[in-house]
Amino acid sequence: MASISILRSLENLISASVDIIEERVQIPDLDSAYHESVVPDNGLSDPAVADAISCIVAATAQLVATIRPAHLTLISTAMMIHVPSALRTATDLHVAEVLRDAGPQGLHVRKIAALCRTSSGKLARILRLLASEHIFREVSPDVFANNRISSLLDTKKSVDRFAQSKWDGGVGIAAFVSYTGGHTLKFTSYLAETMRDPSFAYSEDHIKAPFNYTLKTDLPFWQWLDLPENEVERRKFGLAMTCAPKTSFEWGLLPKNSVVVDVGGGVGMATLPVARAFPDLRIIIQDRPKFVEDARKLWKEELPIAVSSGHVAFQVHDFFEPQPIQAADVYLMRWIMHDWNDPLCISILKRLRDAAGPGTKLLIVDALMSHACRDPFAYDIAGAAKPLPPKPLLANFGHARVGEYLFDLQMLVTVNGQERTIRQFSDILQVAGWEIEEVKSAAATQAHLIATPAVV
Ligand SMILES: C[S@@+](CC[C@H](N)C(=O)[O-])C[C@H]1O[C@@H](n2cnc3c(N)ncnc32)[C@H](O)[C@@H]1O
């Protein structure tokens, strides 16, 4: 297809998608504050709207790639590293909280800088870069306000409280932004060096990640997080898990008092919304000692009734050791498999298979990878095939699904881990004695693989 007809097809796709959205929902202004009850922030339950949004995101990115001079795309992509860095800086300086009370008219950067205790000249440049990427808004020269995106960084705490800690309690996406724009950015900057060093490039060992190369340590990432000097990073990491959408498993179909074990559950960010919505379930959060300690504190603050009623319990457990909770109704593992190489995943899965009863379900929540081109593989697992987008979009929905590939590299640089395709999952599960029954939300950043014990 000639470029001009590609541009026209993309333009038509965008226009048709806007029509679908206009028919079904009202889209809030980008300048108003974030509210989780409005579309698109909470409108993705309507599949037609979700698809239309994906088409717009994919098509606009493809339009830009097609029409922008190639050298400008390369130069601006290379320099995009400054965006996560600026975003983390604004987050750690509490700019969104400082701007909360200023409302839509905003605050002069001199006042923002005074409250954030930093240089106004440099802060203005940082905020202007972000405003150009539609995060914050420059209302008039040097006057900045929150917009729908930046206001999501607001932890709702008073700035005075930050003397104690910003990273206590449910601080949401700010923790993810601060963690990723800090440590992950450092680790990924050494990716090229590790790919040229054979002892790293060809290794599947979890202590051969760019993280280890960057910090010159042989400690596994999880042990490094346990060090006293990394306490703040560990808390941020635990809270960063809030950034995920809720699990879409049908928890409501489980009988009262069903036992759900959140294996490697961190501070319990996957099961906290489940416990809120289904208080009759019995949830056990297992993790390493420090995360269990953090989880206990967080749940006491966030959902004390679950703690006092005993509907949630916390257990120190190494998932390479025999599973202490036998025949649970559900073993949930969200964002665990992607941390480990195949042999170690198989060890974890075998421990759960040994403990499983005939009715046990294993729920794995992770991204499900696909190629960026069409894939002739015949999917014989229910729900595993991802819907194909309209042409001329890339077969994997391009920029609309880039999150999966970003997470994949996040795993590579931190723990030498990886996201997997359905074939890769199917292989390791089979070796460990599990059979995939169904896949839900295959195309989402968090696909759900539901497996049952294989009959031997
Ligand atoms: C990416 S986080 C996911 C946390 C949680 N599942 C969630 O989705 O919020 C991985 C978790 O695995 C835990 N972990 C690492 N090694 C472990 C082990 N050997 N036994 C139990 N948990 C472990 C980490 O402490 C961390 O909380």
TrEMBL record:
GO terms for biological process: methylation. Pfam families: Dimerisation (PF08100), Methyltransf_2 (PF00891). Residues 258-376 form the O-methyltransferase C-terminal domain. GO terms for molecular function: O-methyltransferase activity; protein dimerization activity. The keyword Phosphoprotein does not apply. The keyword Aminoacyl-tRNA synthetase does not apply. Transmembrane segments: none annotated. Residues 78-153 form the O-methyltransferase dimerisation domain. InterPro entries: COMT-like (IPR016461), COMT_C (IPR001077), COMT_dimerisation (IPR012967), SAM-dependent_MTases_sf (IPR029063), WH-like_DNA-bd_sf (IPR036388), WH_DNA-bd_sf (IPR036390). Keywords: Methyltransferase, S-adenosyl-L-methionine, Transferase. This is O-methyltransferase. It comes from Guyanagaster necrorhizus.
